[in-house]
Structures are given as C-alpha cells and as structure tokens.
Amino acid sequence: MADSARPRPVILRLPPEVVNRIAAGEVVERPAAAVKELVENALDAGARTISVAIEDGGLKRITVEDDGCGLSAEDLAVALERHATSKLVPDADGRVDLLNIHTMGFRGEALPSIASVSRMRIISRAAGDAAAEIYSDAGRIEGPKPAAFTGRGETGTRIDVSDLFHATPARLKFMRGERAEALAVTDVVKRLAMANPGVAFTLENNGRNVLRYGAETGDEAGRLARLGAIMGREFSDNAVAVEVVRDGARLSGFAGLPTLNRGNAQMQFLFVNGRPVKDRMLTGVVRAAYQDFLARDRHPLLALFVDLEAEEVDVNVHPAKTEVRFRDAAGIRGLMIGALRHALAGAGHRASTTVAGFALGRAKTEAPVAGLLWQAPAPQGYRPVSLPRAVSEGMRAPFEYEGSPSARVEADEAAPPVSGYPLGAARAQVHETYIIAQTADGIVIVDQHAAHERLVYEAMKRQMAAGGVRRQALLIPDIVEMSEDEAARVLERSEELGALGLELEAFGPGAVCVRATPALFGEMDAAGLLRDLADDFAEYGAGLALTERFEAVMGNMACRSSVRAGRRLNGEEMNALLREMEATPHSGQCNHGRPTYVELKLADIEKLFGRR
Fold it and tell me: What are residue 142's DSSP bridge partners?
C-alpha cells in the first residue's frame, strides 16, 4: 500500500551553478588538483617559466603565473564556460576525436569548476592584444575588462584563486591539514617538472621558497639533471638509462641500480605522452624486472616515459586525467620489462655509490673526537711483531700477522697490477670472508660468499635459458578447485606457463588439472601456486609467482654451492673471483639487493684520517 502511495519522481534540470559544483567535486577534490589543472593549462600555452605560490596549503590562496601565449579579452569570457576548450579542434565534418589527444587538458572543465567553488581572478595578455582581466565569485562573473599586466614576458597569464571551497563549506571538512595539502601540491609540481625538464618551475608556500628548478636542456643529460634535482643526487649518480623503441612505442627514462632501494614505492614514476599518471601496471612491471635482485619488501627508484601514438592510449578514463588505458597493455608491459632488464644487465657489476656513502657516514659518526689521542686496546694475547725482512725484499708468498690468524696479506709484487681492472687487484683476505682489493683510486671490500652466490646464480639462469625447463610428470594428476574466473585466468595463460614447466588443462567448471610441474621444484603445493598465479594475472597481467619461485629455488641452490664464508682463498683465487664479477651482469648485488662489494675512494679515506 505504501509503495502505491509513493509519488512519481520528477526529473528536473539542475541549475548551472549546481552543475559546476558537482563537476568541481570530480575535478577539484583538493588544492593540489586545482594546481595541477592550472599548471597543465600553462604548459599547454607553451610556457617556459611557471611560478606557483600557495598560502595555507592552497586553501587560502593559489597563484599560478606563466609566460605562455596568453588569452585575449574575448577568450577570457569563453574560458569560464563549461566544456569550452581550445584543445579539441573539430575536423572538416565538425567531428571531434577524443582518442586523438595531444594536450594536457581537453575537457574544458578545470577553470569553470575551480571558479564555481572559489574567488578567481585571471589577468592575461595575448600577442597583439591589450591585457584584460575577469573575476568570478562562486561562478558569478564580472568582466572581462582592461587591466595592467605585470607578467614575466610580453605575453602570459596570472591566475589567483582565493578561498577555495568557500562556496562548498562541506568540502572543507574533508581537507587534511595545511601541511598535508602543501605536501600534495609539492608532489604535483614535482611530477609536472619531471615531465617537462625544459620548463623552469618555482613553488612558494606562505612566502617561503619550496622548489626552484631552472630550465634544463632537452637531451638525456637535461632530463637526468631534472630527475636528480627532484629524486636526489643519489638517484642521478646510480641510475642507468632506459631507451627502446618497438612497434611505434618509445620507452625512455632512468632506473636505479638494485642496491639503491627503499621500503616503499613512492620514488617510482610513470609518464605517458608527457602526462604524469598512476597505473597499477607499473607495480607489476617493476616487480617482474627487479624480482631476482630485490626482496619483495624493497622497492627501486625509477622514472619511465612512454611515448606512443595518441590513438593507442585513452587519457579520457578519469576526470582528473591521472589514469590512462593502453590499447595494447600487454605489449607495453612487455616493452617496459624487457627494457628495464636490458638496462640493468648493461650496468654490469656496478653497485650504487650509496653503499660506500653509508659506510663512510657511519665511520664519520663513530670517529674519535678530534684533538684527543686515542688508541685501541690491544686484543687479548696480542704480541707485537716486526715485519720479516723478506717482505721488504719482495717476498711473494703471503704472510700472517701473529695474534690475527684470520688476516692474510698478499705482498705487493705477488698481485697483478691494479690498472685496467675496475675491481682492482686482491691484496688481502680478512676473517676468511672479505677480500680487500686495491684499485687505481681507492679500495674495494668484497663479500666473497655473496659475490660467488650471484655468479653461480647467473650461471644457472643461463643454463636454464639454454636447455629449457625440465618437467616432472605427476603419476596422479592434481585437481585444483578454484572459482570459475580464477580458473579462466590461469588456463588463458596455460601456454605461457607450459614454457616454464607447468602443464595444465581444464577439468570442468572452476577446476584445473595439473599434469606436470617443474622438475626443479620437487614436491610442491600446486593449489597454492595456482591461486597465487590467478591473483597475479588479475592484478599485474603476469604470473610472477611462478618465476619468483624459480628464482627462490635457484637462489637456494646457488647459496649452497657457492664459496662459503670462512673459506681461505689464495691470491689467484681471489683475483679470479674479481675478474669473474667484472664480466658478469648484476654481480654488484646478491639476489636480495644487498651489495656484494663496497668501494671506497682514496679521497674519502683521506678525509676520514684528516688528510683532506
């Protein structure tokens, strides 16, 4: 009875100001989103210098000033209308192709959306026109009218946004704090500056300079300089270039060495056609490319730039344009993984300089106070010894210090010359675990077990690639019950999994029959592996669980068959290990991203002893 008495709904057209505020809720969720839209407009206007200033995290005031092409008085009047844009040009038949986007903005929603929830003033001057300004208070527009232009160049635009969300006070309740909002604005400006190294950027917060990046050159060196200014000098000193072109798609950028890593993925950036985007695919790509160099809780640093035809990527997925959709996502993913692996292999035995920096930093903090005479206490049972005369006469055989049987030193003439060898020549073995080598301008300390473990592991990978993965047929096939969508995802990739030794076939709705497994695994939990693979295919588009399990097994085998810590090596064996490290890719880190050696430059050592 109650249902029959319910009144029929009446469909009404919403007033324009309400429509604008709804749009603002999608496009301008916080001050950082407003800054992003305004800076992107400046980039589309061809600006070479962009200045951003905020107060109270952007809630009180946002000012964006540029030296772009500017707007005429007539353009200003239209710019604050919804869905009015200069960035979508109809063809001869009046049709607009939304899949052929070459600009940062194109929706025509940013300015009217921001203006509908704030007080906005725009002053602009285009070439050949007088300067003009227009003002909006929560969507109520005044102007345009003549104005004085004090921009950086002959043309440009200055936009002042004050009291953001004053027209929607409920939105203010959901803002975080001034500091959090200011950090979000800083992150937005950093990402846009990374994508546009040829543009100078400045950012001020409450009158204090936060960021200042000068314009860089348009080549690879300029891009790395901008990335180093934002991601840190550690990154620029320890990054390898990534460059590959395939099927009309170009991938470029820089990736950090595995030994330069962090506990989170905040220093991983992806740009598509110059647009900063956030894509879950990047997480899977990085895991796949670095999976046998890093533990799963460690994350490398990288910045990748994908450039492809506009028709191959949809940037119209999200109102804020922070997400994209690739037409050939699997192809782009494969391109990125292959390029990263190739770049890391090209780094050879390099380990990041931060390893030595960390060691030097600790040494400096633990050094004795200057001006005090400090002497280490003699170890128990220690007897001072004098160097045998044979040593000064060039004795070739190694000798041992009394009271320190674990330190073995090679005489200088017994070792090969240090020149021409990046890891130098072995001079000593300490505690039957660490090799001390002298280089042309410093010393290298090698963890013999970790280094040899990596060498054995790389050899096993080469053998597996050459001979393929051996299968072990199951006497009784294992039937794994799964949900229908999980089973479908796994069976869809059965050919790919078969190449890795996992033979599968369908066994009714929601069930998979496992007929063979990789022989290297021995007995295994097939059900657990298949469920992990189904999750990986859903999230990353690749079966990382299987390859990670391969690498874990091979890593354990390599660990058991490598030179153990505590084994005494002679000079020839130590130098052979160094030469093999120099010739083997990825030998600068073990399978978990830990360094296999530390290099200390002579200048740094001299600083420790006050010689510099």
Answer: 135
What single-letter DSSP state applies at residue 198?
Answer: T
Instruction: Give the E-state strand segments of 80-192 in sequence order.
Output: 119-125, 132-137, 140-146, 156-162
Find tokens 């600790």 and name the residue: 362
For residue 351, is it within any domain? no
Range of the domain at 543: 466-561
Least confident of 28-42, 140-154, 210-224, 431-445: 140-154
Give the pLDDT score at 48: 94
Strand, coil or helix: 344: helix
Question: Domain ends where: 187, 213, 239?
Answer: 213
Q: Is residue 483 assigned to a domain?
A: yes
Predicted pLDDT at 377:
40
Q: What is the pLDDT of residues 43-61, one digit of tens each?
A: 988 899 999 999 998 889 9
User: How many angstroms separate the Cα of 536 from the Cα of each of 75, 292, 365, 546?
Assistant: 50, 17, 44, 10
Indicate the residue among 213, 231, 263 that finishes a domain: 213
Asked if residue 225 and residue 209 are part of one domain, the reply reads: no
The number of residues making up the chain comes to 612
What is d(CA 488, CA 511) in angstroms, rounded to the nearest whole number? 9
* Number of domains the chain is built from: 3
Selected residue with higher pLDDT from 96 and 366: 96
